[in-house]
Every structure is written in C-alpha cells, then in structure tokens.
Design goal:
By secondary structure, the protein is an alpha+beta fold. The chain has one domain. The chain contains six helices and nine strands, in the order H-E-H-E-H-H-E-E-H-E-H-E-E-E-E. The strands form two sheets. It has a seven-stranded mixed β-sheet, sandwiched between helices. It has a two-stranded parallel ribbon with strand order 1-6. The protein is globular, with a radius of gyration of 18 Å.
C-alpha cells in the first residue's frame, strides 16, 4: 500500500509539473475546471470530426479572426458585402520594433454566417483534425497578439495544413477568437501586468 501511494504521488507530481511547463513564464493564464474544458473540447471534436467542417455552432455574438486566416480570406466574394471591423494586432519583435498584422471582428449574425462559410472553404485542406491544448510556443504567439489574460478553455485544432487556435468564452459555449498559427513564429512576448 505504501509503495502504491508513493507511485501515485510521483505520477501526480510529474503530470502536474509537465503541464505547468507548458505555460511559459510571464503569460497570465487562468485555468478552468475540467468540466468546462471537456465541454469545449467535445464541441470542437464534434465540429472538426465531420467530413466537411461546419462552423455554425461554434461562434456566439462576436468573433475575432486572427491575422493568418484573415490575410487569406479577406478578399473573398462572400465577405465583400459585409461591414467588417478591422482588428489590428501589434506584435513586439525581438529587435525592439513592432509588426502590425490585420485581423477582423464579426458582430452580426449575417457577418458571422458569411465568415463561417468562408472559413469552411479555407479549412477544407489538410485532412482530419486533432484537438489538443496549445503548447508553450503557441501560447507565446497568441499572448503577443492579445491585450487580455488567457483564460481557458483554449484549444488547438490542427492537421497538416492548419494549426487553429480557438479561444472560448469562459462558459465554453462559444469561440470568440480563431486564428491559424501554422507557420507563425514566436514573437518577443509582451510583459504581463
């Protein structure tokens, strides 16, 4: 019994320290309950396990599109007749300068529906998706772009062509930020405050 307790203690210590290493220093990260994370993960698994991805149930009243998908989809015909709010991401670089990348915010039901259809086309390549927690580098990339704390649930849906970071509202009912981190490199991390 004593040996079993020691093994359990070691496993718990190893697994908790392994996870905490994934949160880089300086990033303000707030964990959610297992129940909330599981609800969000199941929602993503349902959406991304379909033969063709359907995003309708993923977003709520507002959604922000990160720089990489926006650069690829912003000139698509399906979005031209919608008033989209620009979202500028100011990213500090290691040489002391900054880079500004363009994204977009969608707020009305019609805008979000058009965004879903356009993103579904963007996501057709790369094969099946895997749902997982973001790694340290992905958290650093996202942290450099946002002015708020990272609060779970947050996941990555990836395949060979895409590495989508999806940040949920705290209740895990809807995604408010989606970006494709495929090919993005870690920028100089902003300081926490």
């Amino acid at each position: 019994m004593k040996r079993f307790m020691i093994v359990c203690l070691l496993v718990m210590t190893f697994s908790s320290s392994a996870f905490s290493d994934e949160i880089p220093p300086g990033i303000r990260y707030v964990k959610a309950s297992d129940e909330i994370n599981m609800k969000a993960q199941k929602k993503l698994e349902r959406v991304f396990s379909q033969t063709s991805v359907k995003l309708d149930d993923l977003f709520g009243r507002n959604v922000t599109c990160g720089p990489l998908p926006w650069a690829q989809i912003k000139n698509m015909e399906s979005l031209r007749n919608h008033k989209v709010i620009a979202a500028n991401f100011v990213i500090p670089l290691s040489n002391g300068s900054v880079q500004t990348l363009e994204g977009a915010v969608f707020r009305t039901k019609e805008e979000i529906s058009a965004f879903c259809r356009t993103m579904e086309g963007y996501l057709k390549t790369g094969g099946p998706y895997r749902i997982r927690k973001p790694n340290a580098e992905e958290l650093q990339i996202y942290w450099a772009m946002i002015p708020y704390d990272i609060e779970e649930p947050i996941f990555v849906a990836d395949n060979k062509d895409h590495k989508l970071l999806l940040h949920f509202m705290g209740d895990s009912a809807s995604v408010f930020w989606i970006g494709d981190l495929q090919g993005m490199k870690r920028a100089k991390s902003r300081q926490s405050y």
